[in-house]
Amino acid sequence: MIKDGHISSMQLIAIMLIIIIGKGLDSAILILIHWGHSAPELLMLVGEIGIVTIVALQLPLFKDPNKNLIDLLIDTFGGVMGSLFGFSLFTSLLLDLAMNVYYDIEQIRVVFLPTTPPNLVLFLSIVAMIIPAYYGIEVLGRTNLIMFALMMVVILSLIAISFTLINIDYMPPLLGPGIPQLLKQGVLHSGFFGEYLVYLMLRPYVRSYRSFRNSFYIIAGISILFGAIGLVIIQLVFPYPIDDHLFFPFIELAKLIYFGRFIQHIEAVYAVTWLAVTFARLSLLLYVLSLMAASVARTPHFRRFAPSIGAMIYYGALLPPTLSDAIDFKDIMLEKRGFPFYGGIAILFLIVGYLKKWRNKPNGGQNPSAEQQAAPDAATVQP
After folding, report:
1. Where along the chain is composition biased (Polar residues) (predicted)?
2. What's the mean per-residue pLDDT of the chain?
3. What is the pLDDT, as a whole number, of residue 371?
4. CA 90: distance to chain centroid?
5. Using an 8 Å Cβ cutoff, are 126 and 282 in contact?
6. pLDDT-above-90 percentage for the chain
7. Bond from prior residue into 241 cis (ω within 30 degrees of 0)
8. At what angle do helices 118-133 and 267-297 cross, to 10 degrees?
9. By C-alpha distance, which of 68, 58, 62, 90 is closest to 300?
10. DSSP assignment, residue 208?
């Protein structure tokens, strides 16, 4: 068992909201815009509610405070199959994180370092991700409370200011490409929110199961609410198909903010805040990958995996030749083709886990009757 301290429910909420909401601030959001057309928020609702439902049904299997997702996969399917399933989830998250790093590096280069060699920016970013992972979950939890407050101030202020930029003439057809297409693409793109599975890796760091369960519903509610509002605002400021050609919608939206000739370049404030939140998010994901690697290897020493995982992320981020290729890889390989596989693992774990839980109850899951409870066991009756 990996032991790395405990965090409060508020710290857990902050960590997960940074991981989930933070991804809406980079180029990955274009996937939802591209397939949702003029109704990306509805596509987001279908996909996110789908993955939230799968994870919520798994929560009763995580009452043991000493086991994370990989531990329970091994307990449920055995050492070989459980480790194989755990390694598959690890690989999926590793590839997804490599693409996220690529998106963020491109955004950093465009906003801050346009003439700096991309390999140098990537190397420094990987180092900045690895160092916080060594401090452990308690330090990450406290630090990310500050990052969460910073992120929410920026998001709330950006939403409030963006209302002055909305053009009601841009009001799109409410159902976009139509209900059948939204449902189909929403199910196919449920993997866009695969980071919800990260939540199950953090179970050993929350003492109370009730806090663990209730925190999940708070996270899902806030994430869905702010995600939908953000996509609606983008649609009303940059109507489809204009928004489908913006690689950095968040930065483009901030560039439109104008307070007068004496307060200029306000987008720099949002960009700097985005940078801090981005590295907090990437560090958390690298930390979770280290936990997953240690759990698959059945060792409590997770920190030793961080440098090698950082190296794999570095080379993975170099694979896409362009930003559009990285977005297509995440869209086609990790979501449309990958989610049926690792989503199938989650569903199979759900079915087998509940079946084992039912079979481990006395009388095959049925409560003994009053007569059975009153009658003594024949083997214990003395002659």
Report:
1. 363-372
2. 86
3. 43
4. 13
5. no
6. 45
7. yes
8. 60
9. 68
10. -
Q: Contact, 260 vs 61, CB < 8 A?
A: no
User: What is the torsional sign of CA 46, 313, 152, 24?
Assistant: negative
CA 96, CA 191: separation in Å to the nearest integer? 10
Average the pLDDT over each of 89-93, 116-120, 311-315 and give the range with the smallest value: 116-120
What mean pLDDT is predicted for residues 216-244? 91
Q: How far is it, in rounded angstroms, from Cα 162 to Cα 11? A: 29
Maximum alpha-carbon separation in the chain: 100
Amino acid letter for position 198: V
Query: Long-range CB contacts (< 8 A, 24+ apart) of 351-359?
Result: 352/76, 352/77, 353/58, 353/61, 353/72, 353/76, 354/61, 356/76, 357/60, 357/61
d(CA 287, CA 220): 22
**In this structure, how many other beta carbons lie within 10 angstroms of the beta carbon of residue 186?**
22
Q: What's the sign of the alpha-carbon dihedral 37, 42, 47, 48?
A: positive
Report DSSP state, residue 256. Answer: T
Neighbours of 164 (CB within 10 A): 9
**Integer CA distances (angstroms), 88 to 94, 119, 194, 292, 342, in order:** 10, 28, 13, 10, 7
**3-state class (DSSP) for residue 113:** coil
Contacts of 257 (CB under 8 A, 6+ apart): 158, 161, 165, 266, 267
Predicted local confidence at residue 370, as pLDDT: 42
Angle at CA 205, nearest 5°, toward 201 and 222?
A: 70
Which residue ranges form the domains of the chain, and what is each CATH number?
Answer: 9-381 (1.20.1740.10)
pLDDT given at position 273: 83
